TrEMBL record:
SUPFAM superfamilies: MalF N-terminal region-like (SSF160964), MetI-like (SSF161098). CDD domains: TM_PBP2. Belongs to the binding-protein-dependent transport system permease family. This is Lactose transport system permease protein LacF.
Length: 318
């Protein structure tokens, strides 16, 4: 239409755009999968890991699960299994031998902790450049390569009250392995010999990684002796100390071979530990379910300790 007053046609009204219209989005690039070389590397990694994973599953996980399952049964290894629930654990909690074995494991644990500081002292002595030190290292290393049976026989002869070296040194015989009050301490003393050698090897390896420049700088500042050891050497040996303590405690909890050779758990079951008690019930009395319950309890004790140490190690790392 034309305005009659001005003769000019009004401008056309443009309708407003709809509020629902969205702005154009930039095109996202298509996701790319793994390249053929990355897939080949991943496949090769799994193939290399497969044998180790299979062995862990067959020789570690399967025996653990089987032992836990067997602990709920009464079985002599030949007849059919009989499900008894928690009866094996209830009997174990009421058995005096179980508490004797637990007490002896605690004695082993406390006395075995002497081996890391003893191994450190020997390692510090051997970590020097003097003539004939290699021969001395070989002599200290020898107990570690000896079998537990050999160590047990050597100390059985050493403790013999009639012709043993201990009787010759004291002038009279002491029935160490025949006295319920002495037998556990005598066996632990024998076990400390190879365990100290093992800790010595760990510390000798750790001493090779110490920063020699820091040692020289500390000596130039006047540090020596105990201060040098406590404030500079031991902090750098912390990972080695952790490993030595872990291995020592696990060795104390699973002690078996020396007890079997030297005392057979006697006299009157006074030197038995959980590992030997488990073996005794399974082999002598054919109580495989009860023996599995002992194994589960021992595994639980180790698991609690290992979890506590791993948590502590991770906290220190953080």
């Amino acid at each position: 239409m034309i305005d009659s007053a001005s003769g000019i046609a009004p401008a056309a009204v443009v309708p407003p755009q709809s509020s629902t219209a969205q702005p154009a989005r930039p095109a996202t690039p298509a996701r790319k999968g793994l390249s053929p070389s990355a897939r080949r590397q991943r496949r090769a990694a799994w193939l290399f890991l497969a044998p180790a994973c299979l062995m862990v599953a067959v020789y570690v996980l399967y025996p653990i699960l089987t032992s836990i399952s067997l602990s709920f049964y009464n079985w002599d290894g030949m007849s059919d299994k009989t499900f008894v629930g928690l009866a094996n654990y209830v009997e174990l909690m009421h058995a005096p031998t179980f508490y004797t074995a637990l007490k002896n494991n605690l004695i082993w644990l406390l006395l075995f902790l002497l081996s890391p500081p003893a191994g450190l002292a020997i390692a510090l002595y051997l970590n020097q450049e003097v003539g004939g030190i290699r021969l001395v290292k070989s002599l200290f290393f020898a107990p570690f390569v000896l079998s537990g049976v050999v160590v047990g026989l050597i100390f059985s002869w050493f403790y013999d009250p009639t012709f043993g070296l201990l009787a010759m040194m004291l002038g009279h015989g002491i029935p160490v392995l025949g006295d319920p009050h002495y037998v556990t301490f005598g066996i632990v003393f024998a076990a400390l010999w190879p365990q100290t050698a093992y800790c010595m090897i760990l510390y000798l390896t750790g001493l090779t990684s110490i920063n020699a420049e820091q040692i020289e700088a500390a000596r130039m500042e006047g540090a020596k002796g105990w201060n040098l050891l406590w404030y500079l050497v031991l902090p750098q040996l912390r990972p080695t100390t952790f490993m030595a303590i872990v291995v020592t405690i696990i060795g104390a909890l699973r002690s078996f071979d020396l007890i079997s050779v030297m005392s057979g758990g006697g006299p009157f079951e006074s030197s038995t530990v959980l590992a030997y008690y488990m073996y005794d019930q399974a082999i002598k009395y054919y109580r495989l379910g009860y023996s599995a319950a002992i194994a589960v309890v021992l595994f639980a004790i180790m698991l609690v300790y290992i979890a506590w140490h791993l948590r502590r190690m991770l906290r220190n790392e953080h």
